[in-house]
Amino acid sequence: MKWNVERSLMWTATGAFLLFSIGAITTTVVPPLVDETIWSAGDHVLHTYTEQELRGIEIYKREGCVYCHTQQIRNLASDQRRYGWRLVQAPVSKSWEYVNQQQSFLGTKRSGPDLSRVGGKYSSEWHWSHFRDPRNMGEKFESPNGAFQSASIMPSFKYLSDQDIKDLTAYIQTLGRDINWRKDRNGKLLNDYEK
Amino acid sequence: MKYSLQQDTAAKTLIVASMVYFGLALTLGLLVAIKFVVPTIGEIEYLSLPRMRMLHTNANLFGWLLQANMGVLLWILPRILHTKLFSEKLGVLTGIIYNIAVAAGLTGIVLGQVKNIEYGEIAAPFDYLMALSWVFFGINVIGTIAQRKVKYLYVSVWYTLGSVIWTTFVFITGHFLTQMPMVTGVNQANLNWFYVHNAVGLIFTPLGVATAYYLIPKQLNTPIYSHKLSMIGFWVISFVYVWTGAHHMLHGPITHWLQTVSIIFSFSLIIPVIAVITNFFGTFAAAPQGRRLQGPVPKLLLMGTVYYVFTCLQGPFQAIRSVNEIVSKTDWVVGHAHMALFGAFSYYAMAGVYYVAPKLAGRRLFSDKLGDLHFWIMTIASIPFFVVLFISGVIQGYAWLNPENTFVQTLMALKSAHWIRFLAGVGIYAAYFIFLHNVFMTLFGKYPGEGEDRSEED
Predict the structure, then answer these.
(1) CATH 3.90.550.10 at B9-444, yes or no
(2) Predicted ipTM beyond 0.90
(3) Number of cross-chain residue pairs from A and B with Cβ atoms under 8 Å apart
């Protein structure tokens, strides 16, 4: 018997839909059903965003920060070393850390460094001047006229109001705070995100 | 008031609007490219780099590519099915609603009204409006198929039909399900990349391939190389493509088995791709040598197929974990996305516009010579454009492996690559204006040779 799908609108449409739906369901509906870490933090305590930080999230989204800055330390030694702090390696990002993010910003492209562990690394004043003049790296380089001082291609956010920059900075200082990983030279954990 | 529209008004509306958006998208692309080398250009809120990037991708995807595909297919489908378009009025309404949605959505992006979904930035209510116009398009496609005067459905029809069905779900997932309150974090990211990848794979691939499956045999006056390969290509892609979204998060915080599944299926994509390109190249090879590359249409189709081969062979390999470690998050990915959406599918769409525009005007193309010139400038500019992004991606990927390189140092290494990217972009931009001039002269201009009518061959 010759089964002639090509003569039937119904069969072509149904076939295309059914074949598609197997993969669609397995990759979108099944993962949260079988892996609860992608929607539940379990025993971990997550930071609750303040009003100001929520405003910062909106600015982060509106200004499209995610198109140049990812928020994920991949399970790769190079990521852990590069985005670590002094000689402490950055911990690999875990799915539970993202659970309370109504707006996720994992990102696909790094034209700037990853930000998932940036909270607490720089002072809020550093961020304020960096947003206004991204070519100003401040304490990152010994000399303000260092060779790579001008290499950053980050756009200036001078047009943001002071309040906007403060809100945005407040959000950025929360990044990575659910794991307390930065230690001082005596091995004491630092918890200085509020600075 | 009873009032009937001329045949193909819908196709014409969509094609003309898409041509304008193509120019906008390329302008924005050029602006983004120059900001990568001189970041202080245009330092105002409404021209900031990330907003321009969102605008560039959305204007390309929705303003140009999807719209051009819809227009070309609304012309092609009635020809294949030997009937009239189901509803010309609905088609024009689709065009009007769709253009309002896209124009308003893009304006929203400039003003900062966005969603956090890559490729899905256009915010409510305009995303809903786009979904509505897609449903209208779907009704027209299915209605036209239902009233066909031929028994068999040709390959182009399968792909268009498949795309109408798949896209509906893909679009809903990306634009609406991701915004539901219980969808957060990595789960949201997974849905986002399901959408991003299938926007390319299940919207633009099937629509572009549908166009090529009609144009290649038609233009070359040669039957398609193998019907069996057409079937393999279509049925395998409808099963395989949708699984691959999670390959955007390899090594990332998403469930490990899902990453592995996405790698396996990304690799399996070689099967439908090889089926399709063998079919296309086979048809080219079987065509009479003298005229198989005459004029811009077959050239664009051939070069589009070449880029399709490259981009679709890249895809499977860059999904392998060890390769992904180097190329992921770098310029390589940008090159890959451009080679698919610009190299392959925009070339097919341009071929479609060049083919359909003279038929709409009822006369020959304004100038085959200008068409060839457009093709050559664009192609010669696009090769360094892609290549330089791949090279800089690999440089970036390896530079990141060494923790002694500060991030700005790794950026510094890409400076000349980004200059070349911008200069190549200027070439592509220049070629666009030749294309625009040629098509608009064909549709609206005055030139000798009118009345030389080839429009009724089908």
Answers:
(1) no
(2) yes
(3) 225
